[in-house]
Amino acid sequence: MTAPIALFAYARPDHLRRTIEALRLNTLANDSDLIVFSDAARTSDQETGVASVRNYLLTIKGFRSVSLHCRPHNFGLARSIITGVTMILEQYERVIVLEDDMVTSPYFLSYMNDALERFATDERVASIHGYLFPLNEPMPEAFFLPGADCWGWATWRRGWALFNPEGQALLDEIQQRGLVKEFNFGGAYPYSGMLQEQIAGKNDSWAIRWYASAFLAGKLTLYPGRSLIQNIGHDATGTHCGADNLYAVELSASSINLEGIPVATSTAALQAFAGFLASTQGGLFKRLKRRLSKFTGIVTR
Q1: Across-strand partners of 66?
Q2: N or C terminus of the chain: which is more exposed, having fewer CB within 10 Å?
Q3: Which domain holds residue 250?
C-alpha cells in the first residue's frame, strides 16, 4: 500500500499549484492519499494568499483521496509539521512529507514508497530523503548519511517516535557525548549553533530537532544520487527565504535503483556534502539566518 502524502501549505497559491501539478505527474499519484494542512494567516496582509490557497485546494484531483485540514489560527511551520506528522502516524505506519514549494520528479513517489517498504523493518534507518545538493562529484545511485533531513522526506511511525522537541535536552546530550564536531558535519556547518538559537527562541526550527533526534539515536537517512526535489521557494516570496539559485538542481529523469545499497554512512557522500558546505559557507550562513524558522539549514538537516 502506498504511503499517505502530508503536504503543508501557507499563503503562496502559485507555488502550491506547481507543487501539486508536478506531484500529480508521479506514477503513484492516483494510488496515494493526499492530506493537506493549510495554516491560517499570521498577519492580515497574508489573508488573501491563504484564502487563495484554500480555494485552490478544493479543486485538487488526481489522487486516490484528498483530505484538507484548515488551521483555524496560525500554527507556524514547526508546530504545523510536528502536529500534522504526529497525527498522520497515529493512523498510518508511514508518511511522505512535502511543503508547498517543493516540485517533484515524476519518480519521487516510487522512490519514496520503494524505500519505505524496503527498509520498513530496518531499525538502522530513520527516514528517506528526496533532495540532493547540486554536487560536482558523481554520487552513488543512493546512499546513507547520519541523522534526518527535511526537503521531501518520509518516515515510519517507529522513526518519528525518536523525535524529541526539547532542544535543550538534545544539545546537552550532544555536548556530553562529545559529538559537537560530528553533529556539525565535521565542522563544515554550525548545526549546534542553530540548535542553540532554537533553544533561545531565535528560531522555531522543527528540522534541527529532527536531525538531532535521529543523529543522537545513531540512525541513518537514505538519499538519492540524483535529486528528486527542486525547491522553488528561493524567490523572496516565502516567509523564511530570500532569493538565490545556490540550491537549484536538475530533477532526476530516471528512477532510483535501490538494489544493493549498503546500509552504512557513505564516506564519499559525507565528503561531498562537507565540501559543498565549505565552498558556500560565506554566503550560506547569512541566507540560512533568514530561513531558520523553516528548517535547520539548506543542508536541509
Answers
A1: 34
A2: N
A3: 5-289
Q: Hey, is 45 helix, strand or coil? A: helix
Whole-number pLDDT of residue 282: 55
How many helices (DSSP H) and strands (DSSP E) are in the chain? 10, 10
103 within domain boundaries = yes
Confidence (pLDDT) at 1? 86
Q: 88-106 burial, b for 16+ CB within 10 Å, e for fewer?
A: bbeebebbbbbbbbbbbbb
User: Which of the residues in the chain have pLDDT under 70?
Assistant: 234-244, 280-301
With respect to residue 296, please indicate whether it lies within any of the assigned structural domains: no
Q: Is residue 294 part of a domain?
A: no
Whole-Å CA distances, 37 to 25, 98, 100, 185: 21, 11, 10, 32
- Nearest of 187, 181, 219, 209 to residue 301 by alpha carbon: 209
Q: What is the CATH number of the domain that holds 236?
A: 3.90.550.10
pLDDT at residue 301, as a whole number: 45
- pLDDT tens digit sequence for 169-180: 999 999 999 999
Return the C-alpha cell found at 258. 535501490
Q: Which residue's entry shows cell 564536531? A: 181
Residue by residue, DSSP assigns 166-177 as -HHHHHHHHHHT
Task: Give a yes or no: residue 301 inside a domain.
Answer: no
pLDDT single digits (tens) 115-130: 999 999 999 999 999 9
Number of folded domains that form the chain:
1
Within 10 Å of residue 19's Cβ, how many Cβ atoms?
22
Q: Which residue has the cell 532542544?
A: 167
How far the first Cα of the chain sits from its last, in Å, is: 28
